[in-house]
Amino acid sequence: MQRLTAESCDPKELNMLALAFVGDGVYDLIVREKLVCEGNCRVKELNARKVEQVRCQAQAQRAAKIEPILTPEEADILRRGRNAHVSHAPKNATTADYHMATALECLVGYLYLSDRLDRIIELMEY
Predict the structure, then answer these.
(1) What is the pTM of this model?
(2) Which of 10, 24, 76, 118 is catalytic?
(3) How big is the CA angle at 50 (ends 18 and 46), to the nearest 5 degrees?
(4) Which of 60, 61, 76, 122 has the most Cβ atoms closer than 10 angstroms to its Cβ?
(5) What is the pLDDT of residues 78-103, one digit of tens each?
(6) What are the backbone angles phi and psi of residue 94, rounded to the nearest 5°?
């Protein structure tokens, strides 16, 4: 699998929140694709199921679950993403969950921009 654009981009040169920005979109698209392929249903139901998987708490749980199987490079990105200085946290999430969700988005963004979509899928399926 490869990236959607041919734009030249070195993820090692980007700050963590830029990686999270990309990772948020990639993560959301993967969840949406998975839900649609699981079966045809109303968009309202699809959206409700998507929200369950992309909300902070769910992303934080997924990040904690995959953490033991990360490579040292991936673990470093996750750690740096968790420590990134975010300007706010949503009202319905703890600060810890928000930081961990941001960390997961950083990792997904980093892997995507590194042309490692297969690894993202592997981690999502774990």
Answers:
(1) 0.93
(2) 24
(3) 140
(4) 60
(5) 999 999 988 777 788 898 999 999 99
(6) -75, 160
Q: Give SS3 for 93.
A: coil
Q: At what angle do helices 56-66 and 43-54 cross, to 10 degrees?
A: 50
Instruction: Work out the number of other CB atoms within 10 angstroms of the CB of residue 27.
Output: 24
Contact 81, 106 (CB under 8 A): yes
Question: Residue 96 contacts by C-beta under 8 Å, 6 or more apart in sequence?
Answer: 60
Terminal C-alpha separation, the chain: 18
Phi-psi region of 39 (alpha: psi -120 to 50; beta: other; left: phi over 0): left
Catalytic status, residue 97: no
**Residue 114 phi, psi dihedral angles, 5° rounding:** -95, 10
Of 1, 23, 13, 5, which is closest to residue 107 (Cα–Cα)? 23
Q: How far is it, in rounded angstroms, from Cα 76 to Cα 82?
A: 10
> Are the C-beta atoms of residues 63 and 103 closer than 8 Å to each other?
yes
